[in-house]
Amino acid sequence: MQYRQLGHAGPQVSEIGFGGWALGGQWGAQDDADSIAALHRAIDLGVNFIDTAAGYGEGRSERVIAQVAKERSEPLFIATKTPPADGPWPPSPYCAWQDRYSANYLRENIEQRLRNLQTERIDLLQLHTWTRAWNDDPQPLLVLRKLREEGKIGMIGISTPEQDQNCVIQLMRDGLVDCVQVIFNLFDQEPAAQLLPVAAETGTGVIVRVSLDEGMLTGKYTAEDRFADDDFRHQYFAGDRMQRSVDRVAQIANDIQRFGLQDYSMADLAIKFALSAVGVGSVITGIRSAEQAALNAAVSDKPAIPETLMQLLRRHNWRRGVWYSGK
């Protein structure tokens, strides 16, 4: 496992991070025993960065991670997320921050995060979404700064809204966030235009999520595959999206074959592509089994993608817009 610094003042984190969404049960049925085994295997292989959220099974993911963290002696860097109070997701331009991220709400929610994670200090607390409507009066981030001064949290971050990832650019330039979590993958390369360069310029840490496009970029699905109603992907790949995505993945597979990269699976290439972006500290991959932990962790030590292939892969940028409203 290789390690990188998370921003100019952050810790050394594993290039491959553990994404804890599936541990909450929203990707189909998930046994806690499998989750625990996956976490232990990932840590055995050098993964020290774990990402979760309040909304992942109403704290279930956090509680499982806390259980494993108590059983390990290695230092782990655990990030979680606080969602806004009830209302539209992502927040509407007409939402007032006072209604979605008030000081009282943030304090109460973060106390719950602390209880679930069985800790006195959260390494990285991220607001789970945002709207640029609040950029000129970003009071929620000032509340987080106060909580940092009180020792409740370490780093302050925002997980970007899919519909407007660039809304965090002003916040990075204003020094209001230590870290941003963004979507960046073979299909969604827009952050390379400005967001990632600004993060590098300002020393803001970058965590990449959805590097496998919710599993599509593993290359294992066909147009006939379907997901259970309680699986997030049932909504994500609704209608003709499965067929359209499979067709695009086939084009990427052709590029891999042309370069004869026998040691790379489609998933390996997708993760390595995300790791190649400027300023990225860690790429979090959704992991729900010990086998997945081993496969994903192994990508870190694979050689870099040849520059000629990197140039070719950039043509797979897919301006498809946003397919769904929130998670």
Automatic annotation (TrEMBL):
Gene3D superfamilies: NADP-dependent oxidoreductase domain (3.20.20.100). Pfam families: Aldo_ket_red. Its EC number is 1.1.1.-. It is an enzyme of class 1 (oxidoreductase). It comes from the Bacteria. Keywords: Oxidoreductase. Residues 15-308 form the NADP-dependent oxidoreductase domain. GO terms for molecular function: oxidoreductase activity. This is General stress protein 69. The gene is yhdN_2.
